[in-house]
Model the fold of this input.
Amino acid sequence: MLKSLLLGLSRMPAVKAGVVAFPLTKRVVDRFVAGETLDDCLRVTHALAGRGLLATIDYLGEDTTTAAQADRVTDTYVELLDRLAAEGLTDRVEVSIKLSALGSMLKGGYEVALDNARVICAQAERVGTTVTVDAEDHTSTDATLRTVQTLREQYPWVAVVLQSMLYRTASDCTKQTGEGNRVRLCKGAYSEPSEVAHRAKSAVDRNYRRCATILLQGKGRPLFATHDDAMTGHALAEVARLGRDPDSFELQMLLGIRSGEQARLAGLGHTVRVYVPFGTDWYAYFMRRLAERPANVVFLLRALVERPQHRKVQSGF
Ligand SMILES: Cc1cc2nc3c(=O)[nH]c(=O)nc-3n(C[C@H](O)[C@H](O)[C@H](O)COP(=O)(O)OP(=O)(O)OC[C@H]3O[C@@H](n4cnc5c(N)ncnc54)[C@H](O)[C@@H]3O)c2cc1C
Done:
């Protein structure tokens, strides 16, 4: 109920204006977002690297409404990739892109987004890193899969994201088991109708386990994006059962969520990658993080009523 409400609000411009303008919201946002500038984001990325964690950086923004805006997002990624190269981070840091930020909602939509994604992939290839194409809501799944397929003709290292909440995903996973395919498996962060998606957590989790096994039985590189111990536990048990090379998969989590667990898993020798969002357009991303966990709403409300000097600094979930 609360989850649906927050996901609904994440699409409402009027609410966005109020939330973004409210100064105290920022304190909670800082927990999930690396900052507004490239420098902020690189500082956080260096700190993660110092703790043995890899990163995938997302330049926030998913409501691109003009071609100029899509170009600006593309240029920012190109600049980001240059900076990663200059700072010697490209062996540990890649980028995540959203096709909606690159223009998929404009006239000519996916062609525009594909052209912009190609520019980013070319730059990633030049500096020696990779790109993941994020999954958005189910109405974009087919077009996103097609776009990734096209990009992979030239850049086979482009990763796709599949969401276990969707009924179709086991079948999509089966199609993604080819040699070297990088596939991020997550539960799905969008509000979806029951015609296309499991609504019960138990069903989403069951499908996650099933999809994880399908990917691990294949020849690709699964990227398990979850903070759920049961999902990570299943993936690791299947890795052992199937005799998979420990370097042939990744565990991924979001910045600010279960930071201690990220470090613990990296300390055990697993490859752990943290999703690092940055930029000023944090509203929709932030609302989805609130929707995932009611306790985050309590944390927000507490920040709104506490005086700044009394606020306790928390290091993530
Ligand atoms: C690296 C990465 C990339 C992702 N990319 C995409 C994408 O491209 N498209 C997409 O739709 N979704 C994406 N997601 C989001 C994902 O779909 C889920 O919405 C999100 O990860 C919560 O699901 P969960 O697997 O952590 O399990 P849940 O069952 O939601 O949570 C398990 C436990 O994790 C902790 N937890 C989970 N979320 C939070 C939170 N927000 N705040 C605090 N604690 C939390 C809690 O302890 C919770 O009990 C991504 C997630 C990750 C980690």
Residues 134-135, 161, 163, 186-190, 225-228, 231, 252-254, 257, 275, 289, 292-293, 296, 317 surround flavin-adenine dinucleotide (CB under 6 Å). Strands lie at 54-59, 93-97, 131-133, 159-163, 182-186, 221-225, 250-254, 272-278. The first helix runs from residue 2 to 9.
